[in-house]
Amino acid sequence: MADYDYDLFVIGAGSGGVRAARLTALDGKKVAVAEEYRVGGTCVIRGCVPKKFMVMASEVSHALEIAEGYGWSFDNAKFDWPTFLEAKDVEIARLSGIYAANLGKAGVELVHGRAVLKDAHTVEIVGKDRTITAEKILIATGGRPWKPEELPGIEHAITSEEAFHLPELPKRILIAGGGYIAVEFAGIFAGLGVETTLIYRGPNILRGFDDDVRAHLAGEIEKRGIKVILGCQHEKIEKTDTGLVNHLENGMKLETDVVMFATGRIPYVKDLGLKNAGVELNEAGAIKVDPHSRTTADNIWAIGDVTDRMNLTPVAIREAVAFHQTVYRDNPQHFDYEAVATAVFSQPPVGVVGLSEAEARRSCSNGVDVYVTRFRPMKYAFTGSDERVLMKLVVDADSQRVVGVHIVGPESPEMIQLAAIAVKAGLTKAQWDATCAVHPTMAEELVTLKEKQSGATSAG
């Protein structure tokens, strides 16, 4: 056997890479991980965590409005962007430090620098005059924002990564996109008092989600003051003395202070040296892997967003565990991508697990039963708000298994985590109905829905 510097070399110290490195090192293997930026990856540094802090900060304005309906009064309440940024950055630095410390405690060597594959067993640390060999290599470099570089004036636009570090809060912003990141940042900026416009080229936001969820959320975010323009996109961006003029395909011109593109993310494979190691990409530009995360090079694996399978932090972590069990524990495993819950931290938020109604109609041979409720939650009813919650259950008409749960409303991410257990376990609608409600809560609606949506059952 060849003599290598390491048993395992991991490229990328995000959630997936860190978990795989730690587990393998704790098994007594010699492990190193290279990170060109900061330990923690997209989720901790420029994704889920700082975004959630921004969501929570922006939700305060809505909470203050509700509080006034309950008799509270607030004089001179105001938000200070620099104060928030400083507190956010301190917390992110703390979390990144914990990730780095945990690597050290497990015996993993942390290499600060960009790793590039020279061949299937060799990596070069760019600019550090260092070459490293490893028996096995794991690629976990994640993804990066994409924006249309051919668009005239695109150099004036930012992505979500720059949005975390804006030197000042703009008065006006236009966000291009209709997915998770776009609707989340629209809610953030609107909640912080920014005049916010969301533009999306498709017929409705959140492509891939249940149609009822998409329509309901579009209506609800407009109630929060967000202007939504659908079926349209940019022709160009023009910088003027007073701002950025967005020239749209429908002839509209909108001037804003900031233009943010949230039009998707792509696997981060640029200049990684994949060809040198025999690692192939698929048609979408992601690293091609088998069900056990092995690439087309026998000794190289890839996990997380760089494989573009299911781009969620908890999924990358589970893929890391499966990799470790398969490669180092002689216990072949692969992650089960069925019935994975997800949340969109829009305002109001969305929680989803399982199949949309359209997906269920295609996969359930004897049709589906659909249960839907829309209601004004108790908290808002007291204040006179017209905001509504949507809850929807999709049931296989034959087996009566609940195959999809869709919620739009306050605390839906918390509710969907528990609903996911029931969906993953394959519980039937009768078993949901047999569960006693907790009253008064919004979640009780999930176990008290009795009336099928008219005409819901039909062959798939």
Poorly predicted runs are none
Report the span from N to C terminus: 55 Å
State which percent range the strand residues make up: 15-25%
Shape: globular
Number of strands: 21
Which class best fits the helix and strand makeup? alpha/beta
User: How big is the Rg?
Assistant: 24 Å
- Classify the helix fraction into a percent range: 25-40%
Major beta sheet, specifics? Answer: 7 strands, mixed
Mean pLDDT: 95
SS summary, helix count: 13
Question: Could you walk me through the main structural features you see in this protein, from its secondary elements to its overall organization?
Answer:
The chain is built from 13 helices and 21 strands. The protein has 460 residues and is α/β, with parallel strands linked by helices. A hairpin with a 4-residue loop joins strand 11 and strand 12. Helix 1 runs parallel beside helix 4. 42% of the residues are buried. The mean pLDDT is 95.
